[in-house]
Amino acid sequence: MRWSAQELGVDQVDALPGLARLNNLVRSVRTPEFAGVTFHEVLAKSALNKVPGPERFGFGWTINPYRGCSHACTYCFARPTHEYLELNAGEDFDRQIIVKINVAEVLRKELASPRWARKPVALGTNTDPYQRAEGRYRLMPEILTALADSGTPISILTKGTLLRRDLDLLADLSQRVPVDLAMSIAVYDDELQQSVEPGTPTTAARLATVAAARERGLPCSVFVMPVLPYLTDTTSHLDRAFSQIAEADATSVLHTALYLKPGTKEWFLAWLDRERPDLSPRYRRLYAKGAYAPAEYRTWLAQRITPLLRKHGLRTGRTDPATGAVLSSAAAAQSAPSPVPTLF
Q: Is the model's pTM score more than 0.70?
């Protein structure tokens, strides 16, 4: 099989307890190129995930080639999903990466079903399909080609500049199916960005990827999310962000305030206690009643952002209400405006 020839490093015989019980675990691998990271290669039983949305919108479809993410964003809402495998939502999420090595092969079988209705499929709604592991495993080109071959519209949300590797392929595929891209860029201060999301490419590199996509005629939105209260919600920070986004020729901008669900909340607040203890009491008050910032804060933030978007000639994008990804252009004409977007 294709993946069996990838010599990543030394096989690990001490797979973690939750993973050892999986009947689809092939092997656990470490390699010097990814110091401190273990890849757990599994055989996927399915590729397409059906995601329920608001009742009047129906459901959406996603593909997640990886679980866990080396981008290590302290605020990532997907962190608690690692607990299903008896891995923790903190360092394990960043360093224990599940790789579905046969995902493209399984996907082709599912797309060949006469029941497949060629609904838009979103990638990047849980963990990033263009995280560093993709440079080694190269799962995305085959996934994207399989989708296009079946006539299925594609949308991608990523923080990974590795997307540039596949831009020519995506431009070719866009001649056959709708392709919609979005780059997540939350922080426009280099020091803060490297602290709060230490495994991600720089803001400048991600903006350059947006520009490269636009140069190839591909639509590419920017997710300015999450906006971090008291850290990235100042007028100066947001004005700098939207200026750079406009310069990159982004198709649209989407934004929302930080969302802190259980599992993520503890990890983010631990980072805050270390790096910005002066803000810890304010955050604990702000998020005392739940995962969302209070409605009053979200209204205030929207009032601050709206004139800045207008100043820089940017339009507000729309999300798919089921997946949280950028709304596929294939569905845009039939879809009503989306609610407050979910986080990457």
A: yes
